[in-house]
Amino acid sequence: MAAATEVKKDEKKKVAKPKTPKTGEEKKVAKKATATTPSKDAKATDTKKVKKTKKLKRLRLRHGRLYARAIFTGFKRGQRNQHPNTSLLAIEKCNTKEDARFYVGKRCVFLYKAKTKELKPHSKRKSRLRAIWGKVTRPHGSSGSVRAKFHRNLPAIYMGRKVRIMLYPSNI
Questions:
Q1: Long-range contacts of 98-103 (CB under 8 A, 24+ apart)
Q2: Closest CA relative to residue 158, chosen from 111, 94, 105
C-alpha cells in the first residue's frame, strides 16, 4: 500500500512542461485560428436568432387566394377591326374550353392605382386604389381564354396586366 500512495503523490507533484517560445509566424497562425473559430456562446446566439425568425415566419401565415389570376391579352377582333367593348383574358392554369366554361358568369375586376386619393363608399379612408368591374361572358377559342365585358372599356395600355376573376357567383 505504501507503494500505491507514493505513486499518487508523484502524480500530484507533476509539473507542466514549460512551453517553447513561438516564432513570429507561429504566433500569427495561432491568432488567426483563435479568431476564426467562433466560441460556443456565439454559436448559441446564432441558433437563437435563427429560431426566432422561423417562429415569426410561422405566425405570419397568408390567407388563401379567393380569385383566379388572369392576364388581359387584348380585345375581341376580326382580321382588321377590333372591338374594345369585349376584352380577352388568359386565365392561369386554364388550358381547355371545358376549363374556361367554369368561369363563365363569374365577376372579374381590374385593379389599378391612380394619382390622387379618393374616398370610397363604405370606407373611412381615402385610397389610390381603383377598380373596373366586369363579367366573364363566354369562352374564346379552344385554349382556355375567355371574353369579358367591363363596365368601362379597359384602356389598351393595360394589355399584359393582371385581372382578378372572382369565384362568385358560384354554380356549384
A1: 99/144, 100/139, 100/140, 100/144, 100/145, 100/146, 101/139, 103/68, 103/136, 103/146, 103/165
A2: 111
SS3 2: helix
Strand 67-77 to strand 162-166: parallel, antiparallel, or no bridges (unpaired)? antiparallel
Topology of domain 67-166 in CATH is Thrombin, subunit H (2.40.10)
CA distances from 167 to 18, 86, 136 (A): 82, 20, 11
C-alpha cell belonging to residue 50 = 435563427
Residues of the chain whose pLDDT is less than 50?
none
Q: What is the dihedral of CA 109, 115, 116, 121, to 10 degrees?
A: 0
pLDDT digit string (tens) for 43-92? 555 555 655 556 555 666 788 999 999 999 999 999 999 999 999 999 99
Please enumerate in sequence order all residues whose Cβ is within 8 A of that of 94, keeping only pairs 6 or more positions apart, or say none.
68, 100, 103, 144, 146
Q: What predicted TM-score, i.e. pTM, was given to this entire model?
A: 0.63
Q: What residue type is 130 in one-letter code?
A: R
Look at residue 101 in the predicted model and tell me its pLDDT.
97
